[in-house]
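Example record used in the benchmark description.
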Amino acid sequence: MSTNPPTAHILVVDDESAIRYSITKTLQRVGYQVESAASGEEALDMLSQQPYDVVLTDIRMPGISGVELLARIKEESPDAIVILLTGYASLDTAVESLRLGAHDYLIKPSSSQDIRDSVSRGIERAQNLKRRRALLDAIQNNVAELADVSDTQSRMLAMMPGAAAPGSAPAAQPAPATPIATPINTMILGPLTIFPGRYQIAVGEQPIDLTPTEFDLLLYLAVHRGRVVPCHELVREVRGYSIDEPEAREVIRPHISNLRRKLKQAGQNPNLIVNVRGIGYRLADLPPA
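Model output (structure tokens):
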């Protein structure tokens, strides 16, 4: 049975031609379509013309660095899979890269197998994200179709015999029907309404836009409310990679801070997300809506 990976389009970014050539050949040998760029600026130009399944970039380059390239890519496509390569490893750079959403962080020189394994995991994660988006889109479309059917039924009832003629006194109306239950693509958490298909929550009528990471963090804590979730578990389940708990805390902390700030701006208690020192985070008991 063939062990070749599924066809995928990879962009390799490095200012050293020998390294670009080596990584390109490493990935082409297992069936990937690979293109390369000699700078962050060239990579951005290529990304503006077509999408890539994975971008694998050096960190230290003249002009736009790999970390800056990662941030720019994530601004346009939060689900993009970006792998960083560096010969000048540091904990600060690694934490910053993972905080910005890097899929992986490899130390040069990395073996061909390490590079292929990282790319393979990245493609698998990208496919999982696409399936998740497709499922949420399908749920949202189904809910919209149900709403259209309900609206059509209401109009048909208004046209049935016995409806008031134009200019006549309105007939007595029956008591309104019981409201339809919350659509299946929403979740009610106390005063919060969560809309998975939109990366959005709402407090009453006030929407709150979240980043994909903020939204997935809140949703994961909601699903696991009642227990404290360690940071390494949040990184693994929300971001899709594994790191030690101390590093995971540094990755998760700014996202939690942003979530609390947005809740506070909406008039909610920012301490709905509780920090259990040395262990992780949990969702507080939520008051009723």
